[in-house]
Amino acid sequence: MELALRSANHKLNLLSSLTRHELSNQLMVQMSSLALMEMEHDASSPHLERALEASRRIDSIIKFTRDYEDLGANAPRWHRLSNLLRTVFADHKGRADVHMDVPEDLEIFTDDLISKVFVNLVENALMHGEHVTRIRSWTEKDGDDLLIFLSDDGIGVPDELKERIFERGFGKNTGQGLFLTREVLDLTGMRIDEVGESGKGAVFRITVPPRSYRLADS
Fold first, then answer.
1. What is the pTM assigned to this prediction?
2. Are the C-beta atoms of residues 110 and 184 closer than 8 Å to each other?
3. DSSP-based three-state secondary structure for 73
């Protein structure tokens, strides 16, 4: 059954890859034609600008589906949290002060796309926080559960949007980032929610069940 499931996933991913490739080729033709129309005709036309913006948005969505094509395709495995965060923070160093306070030997059992979860959370903070200068991550225990926090000092999330930000299609760009973040975590029973105070920065909390974290042997 496992082999059959992997084979089905492989075929679906192959179909997705081929479809995305063809869509990208046709979209490139469309965007080039629209750009030529913009130069040759009325560049201030609102209809032309809307068509270009729609094309750019479609291109962004296509690229996003490529990044998440392998969601659930491989079996989950153990990842060292400190290494994940250190890599993500290093890639964004210079855009904000970053601080990590997690045990060096702490591991979480999750999909390989977990790195994109933290990348998405950091980029979400920098993109929507408006004036983010500091990003911090730390862990706490809540009974048998492990809590992983990632916070920033931006504008935060209004109370009425704390759940909606995880809905598919909600947002200014593809509207998929936080939705797929929740999906990646859900594969191994983890949950994510936003618990910050509006106006004082966003705080994302990931709840990890006992079976999905451990202290690695040194």
1. 0.71
2. yes
3. coil
